[in-house]
Amino acid sequence: MKPDSPISTRISRIVIAAVATGISVTVGGFLVVDFRQSMLAETSRYQSAAFAFAAAASDGVAEQNARTVLEVIRGVRNLPEVGYIATLDSTGDVIAEIGGGARLVGREDAWWHIPTTIEVTADVRRAGRSVGSVLMRAQPKDLIERYLYAALYAFLFGGMLVGLTSYLARIKVVRVIRPLRDLSEQFIDIGQRSDLRRRLNKQRNDEVGVLVDAFNQMFAHIDERDRLLQRHMETLEETVDARTKELRAAKDEADAANAAKSTFLATMSHEIRTPMNGMMVMAEMLSAAPLSPRHQRYAEIITRSGKNLIHIINDILDFSKIESGKIELEEVEFSLDALVEDVACLFSERAREKGLSLAVFISPQVPSKVVGDPVRLTQIVSNLVNNGLKFTETGGVTIRLEVVDDQIAITVEDTGIGIASHQIDRIFTRFSQADSSITRKFGGTGLGLSISKQLTELMKGTVRVESQVEKGSRFIISIPFKMTEAASEISKRFDFSVALFDDDVITRWSVAQALEARGISVFERTSGVCKAVFIRAGTSHDLSDIALGMPIVLLRPFAATSVSIPNHLDVTAEVPLPIPRSAFDLVCAAVEDGDFSTLDFDCREKRTNVLPDLRHLKVLAVDDVAVNREVLAEALRTFGIQADLAESGQDAISQARARSYDVIFMDCSMPGMDGFEATREIRALEQVAARQPSLIIALTGHVMGTESGNWKDAGMNSYLAKPFNIAQLTRVFHDLQIVRPGNGEDIVTNHGVDSLLSSETMTMFENIRTSTGADIRSKVFAMFRASALDAFRAAVDEIMSDGPEGKRLVHALKSNCSSAGAARAMSICERIETVLASGATADRALLRELELALSDTLVAMAKLDASISA
């Protein structure tokens, strides 16, 4: 790279250029101005001569006498610089002329133009009248030559002046620049020697001196830094060791604090749930007792308050699990339709109590089945719906399920108080709401939205909020679920119109959207083109124009009792709100075909509060707290069970040794021998005595921490978290196949001859067929037949070879049996799983029993399938 010119040279060039330019412009300007002034004076002289010639030639011009005129203008010889003179008549024609007549082309009146030719004109007048003119043109050569010599001398002088100035400027610039040159040489020497201890010499107090001070200070800082770095490098190993010890100590302290927090939460959970258990069960039984309305109300308030307290405790524990990273998401196949509709049913009664609407819209593009965690997704949607109902006084809440950018978008929109834009970020902060007045007015922990946001993010999803104060809020959850079953194609592209009468804009929108998505036109009044009329129960619309015989579909909200419509109208079909997506095609097809016989929706609850009679069961209740034993015994009496009681683990083992029990409720936290150790002893006792294993249900208040899952490892069959209620106790009986609903029979699956197929599952299949028209039993049975025996053989091979996957394969087979309703096979899988969990090996007799149960189940499924086809 070519080096740049020295600074002194560049500054000298600048000075020389400036001086030369200044002198040139100044001298040139003066010469031009002076020359123009001289030319003006010459022009004035020639103009006077032209006037004289015009006066002398006036008679000749007037008479057009060329000879006379020529004699006059010959006097121009006395003006040697005049090159041309002519007289012209009044029309411009030449009368007489002397010299060359060529004229220069172009204008010479611009200010920058230097004139070299002088041209003047004078009128010829006779008796005051213009009879022609005289034109004279001259070139003042002497004047031009004089000024050219003057310009030459001026520029020669200017050049000498520029040269002198350049010489002096060079000397001065070099003198000024010399300190900078010396400074640069010192920098070069410092750089070559790498001697940062050296300091620059300061010779003057101008800018160079300031620069020297700044560099000396910088060198001092760099030198100090280098010495510190050297010292640090020498002590680095010692520093790292010390910091490592400090970090290890801090980590141990943080782990201890985290463990203490987890232990505290687990202990507090247990300690709180134990007394809550007695309160909740007794309050529930009290509310079911024949009390006066006033005392009945007291019992209901106690029960409701207890549920709210449990909900708050669960929120705190869920948040603790998420915060500690101990929460695990399931990956199972589930139906989005069923999940959203279950949430709507769960909150429908609360919405009705507040006079609010609860609507559901599921886009036809939403897949039927996806893979994910349905429990946690239900928790997310429930929190959002609960939040919407809490902060809404009029209007209602809408749940929308759509597909947006290949993700499932769940939108929960309310018409409540709304959220100010500057407060939106706060609502997802733990233990925080929009402002303190919200907490005072509506209550709550401020954890629901925080938990929902964190669960959504664990599912790789996002949460978005849109809100306006006093208009409502919209929460949009987007999650990339994996689709396993696409949405069912709309069987028909319906091409007809219906009238929809609904005072509620929220439910009307959801119904209208679902109808229009299927190609149906929706009107707010009847017309000749309408094939049917949809009327919401209790509508205030004027229905007098509806023609007799017009098909009427009554839309009745959940738990609604009013069916107020004019007496002259007969309801053709009755449909529950919200209408399941799978039912819309059936309704639309019935309207189009005019055949409503296929619709058989029952909006009334078919549940019964009658509990099963389980008095034949032998049950042992184990708990070290007398109140808990009394509560559990009283709860079991509602099922007709007279339970034996044990107050310790040793007492439970003694009673289990003396008597075989069908079911044992085992408290996990007891002094001395806890429930886990007692269970292991009972399992060993059963194995030695070759006794049918009892169903052992863990009673625990530990829903988090290290003890939350220990019941599985101890060989227990299920667990019941404190506090529990009668419904949860019944659910445990159902889950363990101790009792199944169906025709009033109670079937003990682990004692005596149990059913091959679960009546509960068969009832569910029948309910699906009744509500949607789709009989899925054949499809489920076919899938079970295709996979069950292969799964069984894989599990047997793994178990017999003591492989690590045996327990997992048996668990997978159990889940398959549960989904298909293979009750007996599922029960045997549970027994095998219990044996494997205890560390023992399943004997061949138990595996053979499972094989026979599977074979018999497949035969039973084939028979049932054949009867369905027939």
From TrEMBL:
<feature type="domain" description="Response regulatory">
    <location>
        <begin position="618"/>
        <end position="737"/>
    </location>
</feature>
<dbReference type="Pfam" id="PF00512">
    <property type="entry name" value="HisKA"/>
</dbReference>
<keyword id="KW-0472">Membrane</keyword>
<keyword id="KW-0175">Coiled coil</keyword>
<dbReference type="Pfam" id="PF01627">
    <property type="entry name" value="Hpt"/>
</dbReference>
<dbReference type="Pfam" id="PF02518">
    <property type="entry name" value="HATPase_c"/>
</dbReference>
<feature type="domain" description="Histidine kinase">
    <location>
        <begin position="267"/>
        <end position="483"/>
    </location>
</feature>
<protein>
    <recommendedName>
        <fullName>histidine kinase</fullName>
        <ecNumber>2.7.13.3</ecNumber>
    </recommendedName>
</protein>
<dbReference type="InterPro" id="IPR036890">
    <property type="entry name" value="HATPase_C_sf"/>
</dbReference>
<dbReference type="InterPro" id="IPR036641">
    <property type="entry name" value="HPT_dom_sf"/>
</dbReference>
<dbReference type="InterPro" id="IPR004358">
    <property type="entry name" value="Sig_transdc_His_kin-like_C"/>
</dbReference>
<dbReference type="Pfam" id="PF00672">
    <property type="entry name" value="HAMP"/>
</dbReference>
<dbReference type="InterPro" id="IPR011006">
    <property type="entry name" value="CheY-like_superfamily"/>
</dbReference>
<dbReference type="InterPro" id="IPR001789">
    <property type="entry name" value="Sig_transdc_resp-reg_receiver"/>
</dbReference>
<dbReference type="InterPro" id="IPR008207">
    <property type="entry name" value="Sig_transdc_His_kin_Hpt_dom"/>
</dbReference>
<keyword id="KW-0808">Transferase</keyword>
<keyword id="KW-0902">Two-component regulatory system</keyword>
<feature type="transmembrane region" description="Helical">
    <location>
        <begin position="12"/>
        <end position="33"/>
    </location>
</feature>
<dbReference type="InterPro" id="IPR003660">
    <property type="entry name" value="HAMP_dom"/>
</dbReference>
<keyword id="KW-0547">Nucleotide-binding</keyword>
<keyword id="KW-0597">Phosphoprotein</keyword>
<keyword id="KW-1133">Transmembrane helix</keyword>
<dbReference type="InterPro" id="IPR005467">
    <property type="entry name" value="His_kinase_dom"/>
</dbReference>
<feature type="modified residue" description="4-aspartylphosphate">
    <location>
        <position position="667"/>
    </location>
</feature>
<keyword id="KW-0418">Kinase</keyword>
<keyword id="KW-0812">Transmembrane</keyword>
<dbReference type="GO" id="GO:0005524">
    <property type="term" value="F:ATP binding"/>
</dbReference>
<feature type="transmembrane region" description="Helical">
    <location>
        <begin position="147"/>
        <end position="169"/>
    </location>
</feature>
<keyword id="KW-0067">ATP-binding</keyword>
<dbReference type="InterPro" id="IPR036097">
    <property type="entry name" value="HisK_dim/P_sf"/>
</dbReference>
<dbReference type="Pfam" id="PF00072">
    <property type="entry name" value="Response_reg"/>
</dbReference>
<dbReference type="InterPro" id="IPR003594">
    <property type="entry name" value="HATPase_dom"/>
</dbReference>
<feature type="domain" description="HAMP">
    <location>
        <begin position="174"/>
        <end position="227"/>
    </location>
</feature>
<dbReference type="InterPro" id="IPR003661">
    <property type="entry name" value="HisK_dim/P_dom"/>
</dbReference>
<feature type="coiled-coil region">
    <location>
        <begin position="233"/>
        <end position="260"/>
    </location>
</feature>
